Amino acid sequence: MFKSESKTAKLFAALNAGESLTEAQIAHRFGLKNPRATVSAMRLNHGIAVYANPAKDSKGNTVTKYRIGRPTRAVVAAGYRALALGL
After folding, report:
1. pLDDT tens sequence across 14-24
2. Is 57:63 a contact under the CB 8 Å cutoff?
3. 3-state DSSP call for residue 46?
């Protein structure tokens, strides 16, 4: 799916292992300049269900944490409808 040593592959491995990571953590740990774009590419190009959940950091600021989850039936059904309509 990904090149074995790519930054995206390393991010996928961490998320797939159950980690929830913020954009700052992803940028620092994996050297990605635009974590949001990488997550979007994982969703659109590879069909990986990456969820973005709001969380509070240590200073009380709201941040987004990314995790891999299992899509609901409604999400899968919406995807099939979009494919059927050619969207």
Report:
1. 999 999 999 99
2. yes
3. helix
